[in-house]
Amino acid sequence: MLSQNVIEAIGRTPLVRLKLGAERGVEVYAKLEMNNLFAMKDRVARQIITEARRTGVLAEGAPIVESSSGTMALGVALVGTSLGHPVHIVTDPRIDRTTLAKLEALGCEVHVVPAMDDRGWQGARLTRLREIMDANPGAFWPRQYENPQNPAAYRYLAEELLTDLESVDVLVGAVGSGGSLCGTSRVLRESLPYLHVVGVDCVGSVLFGQPDRPKRLQSGLGNSLHPQNLDHSLIDEVHWLNDREAFGATRELAREEKLFAGNTSGSVYRVLGAVAERSEPGMVIVGIFPDRGDRYADTVHSDAYWAEQELERLPLAGRPRQVPAGTEVQTWSYVLTRDDAPRPAFVFVESNTTGTGMLALRIAAEAGYEAVLATNDPGRYLGLAGTGATVVECDTDESAALIDAVTKAVEPERIAAVSTTSEFYLIAAAGLATAVGLPAEDVQAIAGCRNKGSLRRALERAGVRQPAFEVVQDGAAAAAAAARIGTPCVVKPVDDSGSTRVRRCDTAEQAAALAAEIVAVRENGRGQATAGEALVEQFLDAPEFSVEMFGTDGGHRLVGITEKTVTGAPNFVESRHIVPAALPAEAAQEMEATVRAALAAAGLGRGPSHTEVKLTADGSAIVEINPRLAGGLIPELYRLATGVDLLAAQVGHAAGAEPVLPGGFTRYAGIQFIMPTEAGELERVTGVEEALAVEGVEQVTVTAAAGRRVAPPTDAYGRIGHIIAAGESRAAVVEALERARALIALHLRDR
What we know:
Layout: E1 15-17, E2 27-32, H1 41-55, E3 64-67, H2 71-82, E4 87-91, H3 97-105, E5 109-112, H4 120-135, H5 149-152, H6 155-164, E6 170-174, H7 179-191, E7 196-202, E8 237-241, H8 243-257, H9 263-277, E9 284-289, H10 303-309, E10 321-322, E11 333-336, E12 345-349, H11 355-366, E13 370-375, E14 390-393, H12 399-409, E15 415-419, H13 426-435, H14 443-450, H15 452-462, E16 469-472, H16 475-485, E17 489-493, E18 503-505, H17 508-520, E19 534-538, E20 544-552, E21 555-566, E22 574-579, H18 585-602, E23 607-616, E24 619-626, H19 634-642, H20 646-654, E25 668-674, E26 680-686, H21 688-692, E27 697-702, E28 709-710, E29 721-727, H22 730-743, E30 745-749
Helix pairs in contact: 1-2, 6-7, 8-9, 11-20, 13-14, 14-15, 15-18, 16-17
């Protein structure tokens, strides 16, 4: 059909099939709205302005004023100036020079606001717009964000799709004003009631419940205000991409599909790929591609701009992560908005057997996830039924079996997070996360920490201070190592925890006997094969601490330093923890620097870490690194002393959120473990209520039941309870712990 003028040339844009999904028989199409004279908003400008002229709201020759930094500005300029109206465009410094040149070439007056206000750039632009309106009586403001003619303009787009395609199963579109996606989907649903509508937004936009980040770099989608034309009830699914992800997808769109577009089209392209992957053969998916790439030559398509904005430092997701509604996101994530939509799943691979493990399941459930526990023995976990978690019983020690069982029980695209509270399953959890496309700590780095011999060698290569050591496979080698290192020395398994079989040996003969005992053990307490090696290392007679860190995309953050007390030789059972540690600032800084160097040497980068340190006369020496939260209820001490729950931070980080970490200490907290001093059968424990009444005491817990055989502990598993206290000073906490412990009596039979 021959157009009579440029305004009649708007619309009837091409529909092209993309490569996405073709190998699976899924049909994915791009509606090239970029092929309008300027871009997609040409449709909106034509509809609004011609309707305003028809109804008399816009008088002949009256000024038109609009706030826009992109395609709406161009559409208003095209239609308004073509019909003889002076056009004022209010924009901000983010406007690209190509768009600015086009607006000026079309004869518009462009007003650039110099700075954002408390409502961001949109707020500043609207303030300037009102000033222009006041100075020009009779001026018309299209109000694209609230004018119902905005979505009405897309009836024609919907009709074009229905003409070109017999049916559409999924419609994907970016959301800024809400007009294009809502207007198109509303009309399509008149004949396609089961159409699934997917909205694409950007990280830092308020449109779907995210906090506003006015400095986001994407344009053409997202908003700092809530437009009236956005009808949430029409949208079944919402995706967010950060600047790096959107810009990278735009470049990939050019390489793979030969479409040189802007970041809005690039974001839609990325989401189309994810939707196609989960769609059945024969399904028809359409994405609306609003903008050409010429406006973005100096930004999205510029390596120099990427470097200037440090875009490579932003996280990059390989696939979208489903999150519960209301979750603040940092990287590509999505939410299903229907009331009957399945919840995202948070999978834990086994757990520790303390209350912390079951608490993690409850934290995940309270955050809106379906908590899932993969385990080879559900009976191991007291209180599991009360968590409401879904249990997947499988062989958690065999990677393929674990992956197969979990992905059969839970759709892989619904798995939003994978974690564990048991150090014995850190490797398994990381492997499962990687298998379903989620970020995870490097498995080799975890394995290198779990094997203390491997860690010692890595620290040695990096020049990090640590005890002298040797790894041995039998008693004779241990005796020789003890002779070279010197006695007393410490002998321990390379791959166990909880101070199990960790002892001071005063002679080479003792070292040989203990090493032979360690090597003879073929399975740990979880039934996993042991390494069959022992570590002989220098005994450092120095105060012990642990440094709690948390690795995010921005690097390792210090959570705090914990003061630790252990029982005397020959065993090293932790008997008390205090936070924060009473250390001079210089010593604390040196200890933190040593731990950072150790973490770098170990290759750890993600999530919590718990590093045990001895403070020697020569400086801090690394005892071990655990790529997990501290045990021994240390996270509870940090909660009391800082108000921040580290377990919740671990759960949040695993689910892709920025972890909430302590910003400092408001008071002190400590734990005193209850440990038998004699052997016998526990008859009863008295004094618990009296201990709980001591000022500053927060908890008194006895974990051993009557009838249990107890003895002075040789490892953490021999402790039978604990006391937790908090106060305004270290001295107050220590006094409360000691007073409470003195009130508790263990009554034994068969002493």
